[in-house]
Every structure is written in structure tokens, then in C-alpha cells.
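ESCALATION

Customer reports they have been waiting on this structure for their group meeting. Please prioritize. Original submission:
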Amino acid sequence: MKAIRWQAYHAIRRRCGPTIDVTNGPLDGVEIGAGLRYLGSSHAYPAPSLAYGELKTEAVTLADFSLGYPFAENWKLGLNVENLFDEEYIGECNNAARCYWGTERTVQGTLRYRY
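Update from on-call: job pushed to the front of the queue and completed.
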């Protein structure tokens, strides 16, 4: 294996995880990534006339996965999965006393050509 890279993204929502590049054998060129995203709790304060009081979302940690494979010169296939285990969570609440579900499992495939 060529390298293991740790990537950390510093924002309100934090993400980190390793990416492994395979450089020999039948899986030469494969990139495998896995990571965890931490979404902290948040608060909303609706108007007193709505009688809801303070609304709070709980913190959640989500798992993500990625896979990349160069299958021909300049071509690469990719697969990214966010919220790998399809965790249900409240993503946010606003001051109008509306709360929204967080993003469910998302699978995205890519085909890339570099010229």
C-alpha cells in the first residue's frame, strides 16, 4: 500500500477518516476511504406565542465510505456513500418551530475522465 492519508475538515460539522491507496497486486490503483462525521447538537428558540419552548437536536455521528478505481488510462469510477448505516436523526430545527429529518443514506456514482 502506498499511503494512508487522514483528512480532517474543520467546520461546525467535523469529518475525518483514512484514505488507502493500493499500489500493487490485482487491486492496483484502488482507493478506499472511510470516515466519521460528527454533527453537534443545536438549539432553536421559537416565539413564545408558539408555546414550544426551546427545541434541541441531539448530536449524531455518521459513517461514510468511498471507493475509487481507475479502469483505463485517464478514466476512473467512483462510489461515495454518505450516512452508510442510514441513521435517522433530526438534522435541524428553526425558530419557526419546524424540525427536519437529516439526510438519509446517499449513494453517488461517478465516472471521471482526465485529459
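Sent to customer with the following note: The two ends are 26 Å apart (CA to CA).
Escalation resolved.
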